[in-house]
Amino acid sequence: GNSVTQMEGPVTLSEEAFLTINCTYTATGYPSLFWYVQYPGEGLQLLLKATKADDKGSNKGFEATYRKETTSFHLEKGSVQVSDSAVYFCALRSNDYKLSFGAGTTVTVRA
Amino acid sequence: DTAVSQTPKYLVTQMGNDKSIKCEQNLGHDTMYWYKQDSKKFLKIMFSYNNKELIINETVPNRFSPKSPDKAHLNLHINSLELGDSAVYFCASTLGQLNTEAFFGQGTRLTVV
What we know:
Helix content of chain B: under 10%
Distance between the termini of chain A: 41 Å
Shape of chain A: globular
Helix content of chain A: under 10%
Structural class of chain A: mainly beta
Largest interface: A-B, 26 and 25 residues
Order of helices and strands of chain A: EEEEEEEEEEEE
Low-confidence stretches of chain B: none
Distance between the termini of chain B: 33 Å
Oligomer: heterodimer
Number of helices of chain B: 0
Largest sheet of chain A: 6 strands, mixed
């Protein structure tokens, strides 16, 4: 079946530091890949997505590239802010309607 | 207008009670989901409906029963609540196509005492 493996947290950074959260997947077919963000006390929001190999998703300074050869979709941001403190989820959707999530990575950015 | 709305936002109840959580989406989506998020933030899919038909039914106690009166609504009824049911429950919706994202509700924090 499909699965997503995400870098374990928690991750604590200083403002303006570089953030990377690793994500690898196992899937049949050609899945679409997503990063969701959950701010404290809120539901999940889509951060970015990529629907085919070599696509790069980007939003709010975050980027992730769909790498079929390494089955990865790592999330990066060059300079984090306190407001980026949240839980980040990698997810995939394949041809069975199921949206499968990684375990989530809690990121805390200190001023 | 809220795209995916859940009610109630908070629910505190005693063990053994029966409760329902309601979800409505106004996005015109044809697929809806229920997810359970535990205290470690892990998200587990419970059910999914596509055009009112059950398409995903994960290993969930049969005390949990989803109901979809139409494709804009997906409710979750829980019988004989147990302490271990305490969690945040999220409703989500999406279009049936592969590359579309899911939209989530704000969650219902269920506390069983």
